[in-house]
Hints:
Layout lengths: L2 E13 L8 E4 L5 E7 L6 E10 L3 E6 L4 H5 L6 E13 L4 E19 L11 E14 L2 E7 L4 E4 L2 E2 L2 H6 L5
Antiparallel strand pairs: 1-6, 2-5, 3-4, 5-8, 6-7, 7-8, 8-9, 9-10, 10-11
Amino acid sequence: MPKIPDKNINFNIYNEDNILYGVAEVTLPDFEAMAESMSGAGIAGEAEIPVIGHFGSMGLSMKWRTVTKEASDLMAQKAHSLECRGSVQRYNAGEGKLESYPIKITTKAVPKKFGLGSLNVGKSSDSESSFEILYIKVVVDGAEVVELDKYNYIFRVNDVDYLESIRKDLGLGN
């Protein structure tokens, strides 16, 4: 019987020192492959072909309830390790019950923008941090499903490293 994923139950955000950052809404990046159009003899038209393991700019943003020291620390001009640890709900149709399983998204990102938001009585300020992702790994229920490391030429999907041969071609080892 199927186990049907339903919704995020909750999540926390941590830094490289395992310090809890607090309450935020996180917008995760899109993986958009770098591509170029190919046309010419032998092709009936045109095709936009992705470059193996290469992706465009990848952004991550966090909207905070209010300005905090921890969120402000993320303005430091260096790569920050950020980890979102969550719990996802699913319905186990075979047993007729709701269950949870873990999800973890680990990133190494550099700050691009920090918006202070607004000040209103009795309302959140919606301060926002924006980052450029240099590294991301997604682990779902204990299984590594995606890992992208732009500077070390690693792009894995379900244990297949699509940049392994490129690293060898470039003399970067395996």
